[in-house]
Amino acid sequence: MSSEPAAFDIDLAIRRGERLIEAAFVAQAGATVLVGRSGVGKTSVLMGIAGLVPLERGHVRVAGRDLTDVAPERRRAGVVFQEPRLFPHLRVAANLHYGMKAGAPWDATIAMLGIGHLLDRWPRTLSGGEARRVAIGRALLSDPAFLLLDEPLSSLDPERREEVMQAIEAIRDELRLPILMVTHDAEEAARIGTAIVRL
Amino acid sequence: MILTPAEWEVVRLSLLVGGTACLAALPVAWGLAWLLARRRFPGKVLLDGIVHLPLVVPPVVTGWMLLLFFGADGWGGRALALFGTSVLFRWTGAAIAAGIMALPLMVRAMRLSIEAVDRRLEEAARTLGAGRLRVFATITLPLSLPGILAGTVLGFARSIGEFGATITFVSNVPGETGTLPLAIYAALQQPGGEAVVARLAGISIAISLAALIVSELLARRMGRGLHVL
Predict the structure, then answer these.
(1) Residue A165 and residue A20: Cα distance in Å, rounded?
(2) CA-CA distance, A147 to A109, in Å (whole number)?
(3) Which residues of B touch A98 (CB under 8 A)?
(4) Residue A193 within a domain
(5) pLDDT for position B227
(6) Each residue of B122-174: pLDDT tens digit?
(7) Topology at the third CATH level for domain B5-223
(8) How confident is residue B226, by pLDDT bands cut at 50, 70 and 90?
């Protein structure tokens, strides 16, 4: 076995009102799928890893970096939220540029996601699948060290789902970014996941 | 409409006082709106109440308190005396009175617009590498801008109409503190002043209506297309 640090070394507790959401797991490179019944706190765990909700205790280590006390903007987490969260006052191209780092593979990313024809559009004119792909593109172009995907395939029609699924597989296999993905769909989990963590 | 030079002077003075009042109140109103919309702190309810006081207290009381504060024995008056100046019986005093009376309306409009900014967009921006300042400048500010402008215009309209606090605080000095409402009131007191009253009232209504329409158009823009889903 190689001595590479684990892709995800997570042990955290997050307070949500009365509840304490706890998660502890170690995952190797590839796509780790986080499953569990709805309401168990999968999204909270993802937000905790992104640094968007405070931890009650614990640590977040990704690819050997301890991110526990790092500000969200310095974690280099490529987050794709459940809802696309595109900036409504910026066109698609400006959304994609928002977090873009110099030398980011613009052309390849646009081509992989098939969003070249959307660049001049306003977010409110996009379909659910288009907005999702733009959101994935925006996260990828910010030069992330890892990806956090929260139900990236939900509420998509079968065709779009297939497209987005292929895009995620390409990210996993070609870009080789560690991925942590929340889903409640067993088929998605089996196809994309290289490891499964049950909450 | 044909106005006499003296009436034009009233209009000019009103625009000067109203414009100065709402521009000076803008940063204060914005800061208060931000605090009330985004922060939790002890005494928040009290601050909210104090900000809204000018809306419900008789304007003459607000004017009287300004007189106490900026009078020869007040803190404000003494501080200004150090610079050899005063705001009593000056247009600057009229602007202060108008600004304070407009503040609650401005804070309300701005607070709503700041509250309407989806925090989830700010979170998304942070995960894309934007620090707090950049998030503010590129997400929060542009998304709340229509409401901020609407609040400012509304404050301007309110400032133009200010009467009670102004006349109590800085009196009616023609050419210095004699804004539209004060000049109309003075004309009403004089026999044969009806024509002057009618002309100035017409101007007053026109300015206020224009400001309200602009404010409404800006507020509507805020509601359009600024949602995440």
Answers:
(1) 32
(2) 15
(3) 125, 128, 130, 138
(4) yes
(5) 38
(6) 999 999 999 999 999 999 999 998 889 889 999 999 999 999 999 999 999 99
(7) MetI-like fold (1.10.3720)
(8) very low
Structural domain of A190: 30-41+69-198
A187: domain CATH number?
A: 3.40.50.300
pLDDT in tens, A14-71: 998 889 999 999 998 889 999 888 888 999 999 999 999 999 999 999 998 999 999 9
User: pLDDT at residue B229 above 50?
Assistant: no
CB of A54 less than 8 A from some CB of B: no
pLDDT of residue B1: 59
Parallel, antiparallel, or unpaired for β A8-16 and A65-66?
Answer: unpaired
DSSP assignment of A96-149:
HHTTPPTT--HHHHHHHHT-GGGTTS-GGGS-HHHHHHHHHHHHHHT--SEEEE
Type and span of the H or E element at B58: none
Helix (H) or strand (E) holding A196: strand A195-198
ipTM here: 0.91
- Closest chain A residue to B146, measured at CA: A89
For residue A34, the tally of other CB atoms under 10 A from its CB is 30
Chain A residues with CB-CB distance to B147 below 8 A: none
Bridging pattern class, strands A179-182 and A146-150: parallel
Q: Are strands A31-35 and A57-62 parallel, antiparallel or unpaired?
A: unpaired
Does residue A98 sit in helix, strand or coil?
Answer: coil
Which chain A residue is nearest to residue B144, measuring alpha carbons? A89
